[in-house]
Design goal:
The chain has helices at 6-10, 12-49, 55-75, 77-99, 105-119. It is an all-alpha fold and 128 residues long.
């Protein structure tokens, strides 16, 4: 996308973060959707089948639903995915400005620092 542009020539490491964050945001969103779908599907399946299937199968279905919900809540995948995507948006806008000579090298590095703050750390919440 930014091949042979000013950013590619002067600060290619910024592009590496931009590409990495785009991939991470997409992967996190997919994981979030998969776990959410599994949680809903297996919760409904377990609830609708209780009494008509063996208890051990109902427990397995319920367990899969609970694990999916726990992973979603514990790592707050929705917020993390949004944070990474928002950081990507901020850095991408700065790259566009840099390529148009609207901001200089010092400013794009500061925008990168701000985007890193948006991404934040991986957090684990026991309370969900």
């Amino acid at each position: 996308m930014y091949k042979d542009t000013r950013i590619d020539k002067e600060l290619p490491q910024i592009l590496e973060f931009l590409e990495r964050w785009e991939l991470v945001a997409t992967v996190l969103r997919i994981i979030h959707l998969i776990l959410g779908t599994l949680a809903v599907f297996f919760s409904l399946l377990a609830a609708s089948q209780i009494g008509s299937i063996q208890d051990e199968y109902a427990k397995i279905l319920a367990f899969i639903a609970a694990v999916s919900i726990a992973l979603l809540a514990a790592f707050n995948l929705s917020e993390k995915s949004n944070n990474v995507r928002n950081a990507w948006r901020e850095l991408n806008a700065a790259v566009m400005k840099f390529n148009e000579n609207i901001i200089d090298e010092k400013e794009i590095i500061e925008k990168y620092r701000e985007a890193e703050r948006i991404v934040g750390d991986v957090t684990f919440s026991r309370s969900g």
